[in-house]
Amino acid sequence: MVSAEHPDLSEVELVDILRAIADPIRLRIVQVLADGAAHFKSEDEWGCTVHKSTMSHHFKTLEQAGLTRTITIGRQHTIQLRREELDARFPGLIDALAPRH
């Protein structure tokens, strides 16, 4: 089941996305998610040494900005970049934020 909290990208402005990724931890999350896979929201996944509540805040900020979606299956929560939708609305943005090496 996909969370219904994410906004319609047609209503999202570029400044909202830039504001969300201005934080280095959130930018790192977007860069990890740029691989297209859904990732578990566990702390170990991101290489960050912040509290679980802080990570939850970062995940929520990214979702409210329209960058991500949360997928809930039972008690498991994964997060995924809305890559196709973002590429359609803001072409080249994700490639600029997370260049492939």
TrEMBL record:
The keyword Transmembrane does not apply. The keyword Metal-binding does not apply. Coiled coil: none annotated. It comes from the Bacteria. Residues 6-101 form the HTH arsR-type domain. PROSITE patterns: HTH_ARSR_2. Pfam families: HTH_20. Gene3D superfamilies: Winged helix-like DNA-binding domain superfamily/Winged helix DNA-binding domain. Keywords: DNA-binding, Transcription, Transcription regulation. One of its GO terms (molecular function) is DNA binding. SMART domains: HTH_ARSR. PANTHER family: TRANSCRIPTIONAL REGULATOR, ARSR FAMILY, TRANSCRIPTIONAL REGULATORY PROTEIN. This is Helix-turn-helix domain-containing protein. It comes from Amycolatopsis pithecellobii.
